[in-house]
């Protein structure tokens, strides 16, 4: 197992390196640059800027010094657009925010989704099942950019219960609407996956055996059905968890959280090369890490899987 | 002999000492809550006066720092750190007399040396400021050579005669030079603070400013908090005790939060002004705002042959139905435009432009004739593309333009582009027609008209006209440049390198208890120190 984990971590290094190089090249291939603006800069001013940020160097040199900065000093460079900030600072400010509302959303989505899916499967073809399927389809088709403004109109404008946006770590009332907007569609997906996988498990041989030997219904479900039914859900959860904690641009825009999701999209639009690379590496590293975590959990849940 | 300019004399005369800070009429009952919360569309890119490039950043900076002059509610200049100035007879040396009681937020006096440092810093290639060109625009001696790295920053035409006397030498007389000093990039900064903290000097815990407020919190893309500064020279008359700026990236969301009482001021999304004006007559406002919206036509080598024909350019401009754009799409009190300079620019006399007075039918008729002369029409259609950057409003106007041009046999292909791509293509003359907008840097027509000189860096359509260049050069030294501006506008109307579409309006919801915001300043420059909240 340890050998397996070490092996996976060793593969992660060249994977990240390739990610960096490809993103770097793609980014520079896009038209315009960080200092392209409606008011074209005089050539001399642009040259000064390029010199200051090292953009006058050949591309390979830029990549090399960028990677060296990360490896040697964990320095992702200064933002080209938010000039008072370094990439480390931007991530340090935005990531805890998305990690908080994303983490809470994850718990909500998993608990609600798994419960909904499991109940629907157990009560297959009853009114409860139809209700659960209805809820999850409803949550899936209502996109969060529609839901977010509706939430603010209802909870802020009409009821006056919640702040309409912004972020305070100390005040969870700021978290509620982002969590609802972010978790619902994930919850719906989890519920659907859970329901179909649970149905399959409930029809399998070992469940029939369990029932045949006279185990009570709830023990059959808790002890024998739930664990195998969770496997497909868990493989979905790895990437979903990363997507949630690195934030959603929609949530960040509509609720003004100052999170990293908006920063990521902005950096691409602004050609803020350094921030874009920084967030890409963060998302890439987290994705690799949580895919590994998922695989380890797999081995723990399903004794058939051996590494 | 030195002459005190009429301008500063007038400013001093008009602005009696009591009028500097919040001008609260007698008998006003002030609210106990003197806080003001305003809206920002985007995160503030920099809090450094010499690095900032944004309008929104400038709104914040004006409260944290103070330059030589400020603007009053009408857009006229009033003393800031400078009380007055003398101008040499050749019009090229300004001597500013600084306010002795002005101090920084740590109590040290604001000196002429702080301005010298800030201005040198703006021009210095090591700072790599995107606004370095502003020093050049101000014609400060040696600015362009310093930015080019040919001379050291110390050769800039600015020096401290003593702690409270600043001398600036410029290369040619500039009648509007004092107006340019309101701009944030000319604000003083502290050398010792910047050298001590480097790029971190703008962090709330490090920043030392000389404005009416101090920075207490800045969460990127979320909020900016500012407290009243007790060291500000006019703190006694500053009423508003706290300013908050909230970033809300979605305009509609901003409006909802305004209506929920979370904000005192927010932009009104396009098309919603008539409804809001009816529902909230005391809060919905529309005021002229110094920006001009156009379609630029590519007259360069790389542009289409048809656009080199003035008849085609005129026909396209005539066929553009501005009234529909303004009355049916934007609906926010914008003015349809037939010229380039914003109509409300200070001192600007709107030129008489023939087609502005015609009815749309007359314009259409003329457009049809001109196109026929040039050899185009429904039988021989003209195919052109229109580039615009992503935005609902730009899209609506572009679709409207497509419809306006269609009956004339002009087929417009719309190209929606991401902003950077749009800009990049414009700057490389890779377009036929392109959406463009320009906002004035200062309240004077040259900020617009300089753009179409052949030596301007922003003349992306390559409209080159010797007569136009000569007029603009002459205007720099003319006693009264306004007639020259009018003539320049007439050249634009007869050569038609652009399709003027509309002049901007600032369309806002403003809490009815907030007073002191400018109502007659086309730059919409505001200062927190001028605001106050009345009791409901």
UniProtKB/TrEMBL annotation, chain A:
Regarding the membrane, this protein is recorded as: Multi-pass membrane protein
**Species of origin:** Celeribacter persicus
Q: What is this protein called?
A: Oligopeptide transport system permease protein
Q: What keywords were assigned to this record?
A: Cell membrane, Membrane, Transmembrane, Transmembrane helix, Transport
Q: Which residues form the ABC transmembrane type-1 domain?
A: 95-298
Compartments where found = Cell membrane
Q: Which InterPro entries match?
A: BPD_transp_1_N, MetI-like, MetI-like_sf
Instruction: Spell out where the chain crosses the membrane.
Output: 9-30, 101-122, 142-162, 174-194, 229-255, 275-301
Q: Which family does it belong to?
A: Belongs to the binding-protein-dependent transport system permease family.
Alphabetical list of Pfam families matching this protein: BPD_transp_1, BPD_transp_1_N
Q: Does the keyword Cell membrane apply?
A: yes
| One Gene Ontology cellular component annotation held by this UniProt entry | plasma membrane
Biological process GO terms, please?
transmembrane transport
Automatic annotation (TrEMBL), chain B:
Lineage: superkingdom: Bacteria
- Keyword Signal carried by entry: yes
Cross-referenced SUPFAM superfamilies: Periplasmic binding protein-like II (SSF53850)
GO BP field: peptide transport
Coarse class of the primary localization is periplasm
Solute-binding protein family domain segment(s):
77-458
Q: Name one GO molecular function term.
A: peptide transmembrane transporter activity
Q: Which Pfam families match?
A: SBP_bac_5
The keyword Transport appears for this protein: yes
The protein's location, in the record's own words, is: Periplasm
Signal peptide location:
1-21
**Keywords, A to Z?**
Signal, Transport
Cellular component GO terms, alphabetical: ATP-binding cassette (ABC) transporter complex; outer membrane-bounded periplasmic space
What family, per the record? Belongs to the bacterial solute-binding protein 5 family.
- PANTHER family this protein is in? PERIPLASMIC BINDING COMPONENT OF ABC TRANSPORTER, PERIPLASMIC OLIGOPEPTIDE-BINDING PROTEIN-RELATED
Recorded protein name is: Oligopeptide transport system substrate-binding protein
**From what organism does this protein derive?**
Celeribacter persicus
């Amino acid at each position: 197992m340890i050998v397996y984990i070490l092996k996976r971590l060793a593969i992660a290094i060249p994977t990240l390196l390739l990610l960096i190089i490809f993103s770097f090249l793609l980014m520079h291939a896009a038209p315009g640059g960080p200092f392209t603006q409606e008011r074209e800069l005089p050539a001399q001013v642009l040259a000064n800027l390029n010199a200051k940020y090292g953009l006058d160097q050949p591309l390979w040199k830029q990549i090399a010094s960028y990677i060296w900065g990360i490896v040697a000093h964990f320095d992702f460079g200064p933002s080209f657009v938010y000039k008072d900030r370094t990439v480390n600072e931007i991530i340090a400010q935005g990531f805890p925010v998305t990690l908080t509302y994303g983490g809470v959303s994850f718990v909500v989505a998993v608990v609600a989704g798994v419960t909904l899916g499991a109940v629907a499967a157990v009560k297959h073809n009853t009114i409860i099942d139809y209700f659960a399927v209805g809820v999850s389809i409803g949550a899936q088709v209502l996109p969060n950019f529609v839901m977010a403004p509706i939430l603010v109109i209802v909870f802020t404008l009409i009821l006056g219960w919640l702040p309409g946006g912004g972020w305070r770590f100390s005040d969870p009332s700021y978290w509620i609407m982002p969590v609802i907007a972010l978790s619902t569609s994930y919850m719906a997906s989890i519920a659907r996956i859970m329901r179909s996988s649970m149905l399959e498990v409930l029809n399998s041989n070992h469940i029939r055996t369990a029932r045949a030997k006279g185990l009570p219904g709830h023990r059959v479900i808790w002890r024998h059905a739930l664990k195998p039914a969770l496997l497909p859900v868990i493989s979905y959860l790895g990437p979903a968890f990363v997507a949630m904690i690195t934030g959603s641009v929609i949530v960040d825009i509509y609720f003004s959280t100052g999170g990293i999701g908006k920063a990521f999209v902005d950096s691409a639009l602004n050609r803020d090369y350094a921030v874009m690379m920084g967030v890409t590496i963060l998302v890439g590293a987290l994705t690799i890490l949580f895919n590994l975590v998922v695989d380890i959990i797999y081995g723990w849940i399903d004794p058939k899987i051996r590494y | 002999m030195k002459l005190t300019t009429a301008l500063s004399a007038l400013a001093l005369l008009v602005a009696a000492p009591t009028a500097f800070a919040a001008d609260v009429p007698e008998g006003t009952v002030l609210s106990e809550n003197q806080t003001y919360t305003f809206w920002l569309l985007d995160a503030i890119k920099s809090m450094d006066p010499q690095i900032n490039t944004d309008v929104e950043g400038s709104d914040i900076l004006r409260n944290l720092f103070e330059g030589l002059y400020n603007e009053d509610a009408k857009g006229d200049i009033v003393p800031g750190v400078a009380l007055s100035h003398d101008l040499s007879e050749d019009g090229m040396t300004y001597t500013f007399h600084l306010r002795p009681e002005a101090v920084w937020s740590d109590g040290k006096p604001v000196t002429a040396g702080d301005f010298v440092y800030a201005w040198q810093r703006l021009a210095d290639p090591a700072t790599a400021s995107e606004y370095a060109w502003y020093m050049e625009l101000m014609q400060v001696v040696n600015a362009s050579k310093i930015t080019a790295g040919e001379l050291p920053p110390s050769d800039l035409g600015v020096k401290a005669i003593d702690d409270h006397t600043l001398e600036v030498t410029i290369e040619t007389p500039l009648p509007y030079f004092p107006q340019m000093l309101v701009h944030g990039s000319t604000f003083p900064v502290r050398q010792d603070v910047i050298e001590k903290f480097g790029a971190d000097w703008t962090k709330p815990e490090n920043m030392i400013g000389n404005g009416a407020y101090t920075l207490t919190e800045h969460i990127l893309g979320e909020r900016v908090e500012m407290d009243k500064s007790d060291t500000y020279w006019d703190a006694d008359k500053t009423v508003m005790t706290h300013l908050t700026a909230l970033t809300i990236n979605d305009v509609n969301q901003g409006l909802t939060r305004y209506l929920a009482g979370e904000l005192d001021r927010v932009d009104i999304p396009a098309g919603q002004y008539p409804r809001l004006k009816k529902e909230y007559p005391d809060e919905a406002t529309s005021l002229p705002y110094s920006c001009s919206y156009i379609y630029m036509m590519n007259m360069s080598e790389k542009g289409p042959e048809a656009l080199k024909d003035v008849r085609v350019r005129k026909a396209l401009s005539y066929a553009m139905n501005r009234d529909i754009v303004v009355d049916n799409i934007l609906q926010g009190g914008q003015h349809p435009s037939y010229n380039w300079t914003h109509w409300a620019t200070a001192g600007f006399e709107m030129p008489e432009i023939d087609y502005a007075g015609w009815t749309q039918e007359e314009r259409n008729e003329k457009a049809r004739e001109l196109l026929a002369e040039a050899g185009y029409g429904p039988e021989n259609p003209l195919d052109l593309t229109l580039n615009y950057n992503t935005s609902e409003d730009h899209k609506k106007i572009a679709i409207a333009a497509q419809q306006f041009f269609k009956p004339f046999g002009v087929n417009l292909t719309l190209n929606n582009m991401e902003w950077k791509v749009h800009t990049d293509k414009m700057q490389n003359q890779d377009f036929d027609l392109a959406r463009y907008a320009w906002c004035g840097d200062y309240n004077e027509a040259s900020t617009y008209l300089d753009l179409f000189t052949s030596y301007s860096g922003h003349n992306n359509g390559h409209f080159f006209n010797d007569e136009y260049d000569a007029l603009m050069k002459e205007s720099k030294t003319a006693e009264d440049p306004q007639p020259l501006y009018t003539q320049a506008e007439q050249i634009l109307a007869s050569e038609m390198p652009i399709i003027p579409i509309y002049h901007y309006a600032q369309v806002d919801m403003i809490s009815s208890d907030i007073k002191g915001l400018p109502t007659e300043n086309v730059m919409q420059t505001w200062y927190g120190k001028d605001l106050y909240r009345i009791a409901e």
